[in-house]
Design a protein that fits this description.
This protein is mainly alpha-helical. It is about 50% helix and about 5% strand. The two termini are about 40 Å apart.
């Protein structure tokens, strides 16, 4: 999928998809929309442009908004970025640049997906391939809108761009957005191939299994547990048919020598130069969690690091802890080791035992463990407690190496708390925590409890979080810059 990330030029084609030429003649020496969509290769390029926007979205933005304003991540002492500090301490307002960038990048991805969806049908080409490409574009549009509706609630619904007025409009009820998402994913699951049916050069593209799992996540987020259970069962109860499973070693999910494994459902491939600035995760990467002068990497600030509460939550026998947190960092290029007195993020750090040729840890957008835990949650909510517990314990058995960490029978409410807690342990810094707290309505109380814990351990005084947190934080504010451009946009309550 690496080649997918090189087609950002097509943004301009999607934005100006119906603008008239200044001349009646149609030039053939440069790309114009009227003569661009003429072959299967052009359709492929249009879809690849929609994929490319994911690179910006999941490089840093998702982790800034879905992890930093939660009980899982904190801003380092050496990172004097007001926008990041405001996210951590829940001083979030409509001027926050990360909030704005999330909105802008999601709609940029939607624009690219719309260009593919609206123009590929005009191409004379193999119908199976045509529907596959449209299915990929609709999967991506659904993903972009899913992020928007979860962060912002009601948002403008844009499915075409025939004039500049199409980009300006009021927010529509989120149920309309969800219906488009469901329709898009239903088309995608019907027309996308299984993972095994793609060639090795096309690894990372949306698949039938990815569409089903994302659709299950949509139903779960909406609280439609019966539909979530049924949709996720189609994959989890037949995982071998889809080529999915849990890798034996949790840490192998971030081992470039073993990627992509059977747990990788939808992901971004990265190929970066070794130990350079930003790296594969931008500000959220571990290279920004350590003082660069001490270890020979370029970052020199502590940025987004695990909270003490998160570290303390792990059982010492839980093997995930040694991957998610690190105290000793070895740079295989210099041989220097830095020992930290506090836990730092370790999930995306390339250990010295790995190849130092490239820093290419993939970004998981959907990991199969997510499907299993969502399925467990949906089973519990629909009365299938025995199977729900079995699914949850699949994750814990892998984490502990045996059944010693398995949970036993509990009430429905106790199980829901247990599965949300397990999601916290399983998806450290993978961009899930804020969504889980928001959709379950537990964000406010959880952040108050977190504030008390962090302030007690005195690693960093977080009493302000308890004072700042409010019900409004179940959504992000509509960016003021967008409201200045589009006068029909209203603001979310509490902002």
């Amino acid at each position: 999928m690496k080649k997918i990330l090189f087609y950002s030029l097509l943004t301009f084609l999607s934005v100006f998809s119906s603008c008239s030429s200044f001349l009646d003649e149609k030039p053939t020496d440069r790309l114009v929309v009227d003569n661009f969509y003429s072959s299967a290769k052009d359709g492929q390029a249009a879809v690849d442009a929609a994929y490319a926007q994911l690179n910006t979205l999941y490089n840093r933005l998702m982790y800034m908004l879905a992890d930093l304003p939660t009980d899982d991540m904190k801003n380092g002492l050496g990172m004097p970025n007001a926008f990041l500090q405001n996210l951590e301490f829940l001083r979030i307002d409509s001027q926050n640049t990360f909030v704005k960038d999330m909105w802008v990048n999601c709609y940029a991805g939607i624009s690219r997906a719309n260009a593919a969806i609206n123009n590929i049908p005009k191409i004379t080409m193999d119908e199976t391939l045509k529907n596959r490409l449209i299915g990929e574009a609709r999967f991506l549009r659904a993903l972009y809108y899913f992020n928007l509706v979860r962060f912002f609630g009601d948002v403008p619904l844009i499915t075409k761009l025939e004039s500049i007025n199409d980009a300006m409009g009021p927010r529509v009820p989120k149920d309309q957005i969800y219906q488009l998402i469901i329709d898009d994913l239903s088309f995608a699951e019907a027309n996308l191939p299984l993972r095994k049916d793609y060639g090795t050069k096309e690894e990372g593209r949306a698949t039938k299994g990815a569409a089903k799992i994302l659709l299950g996540k949509v139903y779960l987020t909406k609280g439609d547990y019966a539909k979530a259970k049924d949709k996720l069962a189609e994959v989890v109860e037949a995982e071998n048919n889809f080529g999915y499973g849990l890798v034996a070693n949790y840490a192998d999910n971030w081992n470039p020598a073993k990627e992509p494994g059977i747990e990788a459902v939808f992901y971004l491939e990265y190929k970066k130069a070794p130990y350079t600035s930003n790296g594969e995760m931008g500000l959220a990467g571990p290279k920004y969690s350590i003082p660069g002068g001490n270890i020979g990497v370029t970052g020199s600030n502590e940025a987004d690091i695990p909270t003490r509460e998160l570290y303390d939550l792990f059982d010492p026998k839980d093997t995930r802890r040694s991957k998610d947190f690190k105290f000793d960092f070895l740079n295989p290029l210099t041989g220097k080791v830095l020992t930290s007195s506090i836990p730092l993020s370790g999930k995306f750090w390339l250990d010295g035992i790995l190849s130092s040729a490239d820093c290419d840890v993939n970004m998981h957008i959907i990991r199969y463990a997510d499907a299993i835990l969502m399925y467990a949650e949906a089973l519990n909510e629909t009365g299938s407690s025995e199977n729900a517990l079995a699914q949850l314990n699949r994750i814990r058995t892998r984490a502990f190496g045996d059944a010693s960490g398995n949970l036993t029978s509990m009430s429905k409410d106790e199980f829901k708390k247990a599965v949300i807690n397990e999601r916290r342990l399983e998806f450290v810094h993978e961009g899930n925590r804020w969504f889980d707290l928001s959709r379950t309505g537990t964000f406010v109380q959880r952040m108050k409890d977190h504030s008390a814990y962090e302030s007690k351990v005195a690693e960093k005084n977080k009493t302000d979080i308890a004072l700042n947190v409010k019900d409004a934080h179940l959504l992000m504010p509509i960016p003021q810059l967008e409201r200045d451009l589009n006068k029909e946009l209203t603001q979310n309550p509490g902002y």
